[in-house]
Specification:
α1 packs parallel to α2 and α3 packs parallel to α5. The chain is globular and about 60 Å long. A four-stranded mixed β-sheet has the order 2-15-17-16, with helices on one face. The protein is α/β, with parallel strands linked by helices and 421 residues long. It contains twelve helices and 23 strands.
């Protein structure tokens, strides 16, 4: 499916944010490990989160699904995977990483794999640490990359981990840690990428009854005597998905309000709003909504977005419409996403007339006349959505393979069509 985006000006609309993908993944897993039935209210039912849910059922966890809730019959940390269980998680990096440590709780070995892109996304740092904690990781093709088989046990104890590639390596160990044979004391040896996601992980764990002691983002001690208890848990709105609507206001002018957002959320992608404010937008927080309005020209900024990786591409689109240059730093880990997002963003902006230079950890976008063109997102949902938003500002942009957005935001194109009118 191709989607052609026309030029649009002076927006004025309100929309509800979809549920958070990050919270949904973690709540599904905590509910699966808990004792008793947990009800996850308003979960995100998108490709990625459904892959996690399907994997949990293959690990022996009963699940009942309805449009606005998922009921999970927790296994109390005793996964009942059959012999030869294979979890194919497609291109869901969150699913693969969070489920890797979870697989240590299975009586039988579990193999994890994914599509061709997933098999190029490194997992070696997590595997190294799991071996220290009692696990056995056997790589079936290339060392350090999926597919691999998890066996052994989750003995627990003290270990160190390199978090520079992904904070999800850390989250993977933490979220399963209440079921280790001993307390887990995890030391992060290098600064964690996207560390705000660790706040999400810890928050979900504590909501389900885990006990965690932490020193900032460098050490986490997880008790193995405070296990998850079943509960009803509501998923909050997603700032990553909301960023596309905020960017529409910035790029097209006018005012956009996004509801179903927690103004006090620990989601790192809230930093996107601060960036827009510095670029000349007005940002207003209400009880459960945020509004962005732009009435004056955009100015470029220099900003570190290491804590808000999923909104970097969206910010690049806003920067392409600014009157002065923008430099975004803290982005080295974007090369390990569903695509190499640094390279993809730069190449596609140049295809539309953009003036872009990049380094290993930065991208600079300078003012340049833009024009329409065709964007192939390379099966990356965030590339498709961010360039669609830019298309509203310049017109004539065609997004190919547009259905890839179902990975995180199944209703995106329907909402965009409504915005265009």
């Amino acid at each position: 499916m191709n989607y052609i985006v026309p030029c649009t000006r002076d927006l004025d609309f309100s929309v509800a944010a979809p549920p958070s993908k990050s919270y949904t993944h973690r709540a599904f897993i905590a509910g699966a490990l808990a004792s008793g039935d947990s009800v996850i209210l308003h979960p995100l039912l998108a490709d990625d989160t459904m892959l996690t849910l399907q994997a949990l059922t293959r690990l022996g966890v009963p699940v009942t699904q309805s449009p606005d809730r998922v009921t999970i019959n927790g296994c109390d940390g005793q996964l009942n995977a059959g012999k030869g269980t294979i979890l194919d998680v497609g291109n869901s990096g969150t699913s693969l990483r969070l489920l890797t440590t979870l697989a240590l709780l299975s009586r039988e070995p579990v193999t994890l794999t994914g599509n061709a892109r997933m098999q190029k996304r490194p997992i070696g740092h997590l595997a190294d640490t799991l071996r220290t904690l009692g696990g056995e990781i056997t790589f079936l093709q290339d060392d350090g990359y999926p597919p691999f088989t998890v066996s052994g046990n989750f003995a627990g104890g003290t270990a160190t981990i390199d978090g520079s590639v992904s904070s999800q390596f850390i989250s993977s160990i933490l979220i399963a840690a209440p079921y280790a044979a001993r307390e887990v004391d995890l030391v992060v040896s290098t600064p964690a990428a996207s560390r705000s996601y660790l706040d999400i992980t810890v928050g979900v764990m504590q909501a389900f009854g885990a006990q965690i002691k932490r020193q900032d983002y460098v050490q986490f001690q997880v008790s193995n005597t405070h296990r998850y208890q079943s509960r009803t848990y509501a998923i909050e709105g997603d700032y990553s998905s909301a960023s596309y609507f905020f960017a529409m206001a910035a790029i097209c002018g006018g005012r956009v309000t996004v509801t179903m957002l927690n103004p006090e959320s620990v989601q790192g992608d809230r930093a996107f709003l601060e960036a827009l404010s510095h670029m000349g937008c007005s940002v207003r927080y209400e009880k459960n909504s945020v509004s962005v309005e732009r009435t004056t020209p955009l100015s470029g900024i220099t900003v570190d977005m290491s804590a808000a990786p999923d909104t970097v591409q969206t910010l690049c689109m806003v920067a392409a419409m600014a009157d002065t240059p923008t430099t975004i730093t803290g982005i080295s880990h974007l090369k390990y996403k569903e695509s190499d997002r640094i390279t993809s963003t730069a190449e596609n902006l140049r295809r539309l007339g953009g003036d872009v230079t990049t380094g290993s950890d930065w991208i600079t976008i300078r003012p340049s006349p833009l024009h329409g063109g065709t964007i192939d997102p390379l099966d990356d949902h965030r590339t498709a959505m961010s360039f669609a938003v830019l298309g509203l500002g310049i017109g004539g942009v065609t997004i190919t393979d547009a259905e890839c957005v179902t990975k995180s935001f199944p209703g995106f194109w329907e909402i965009l069509t409504g915005v265009i009118g």
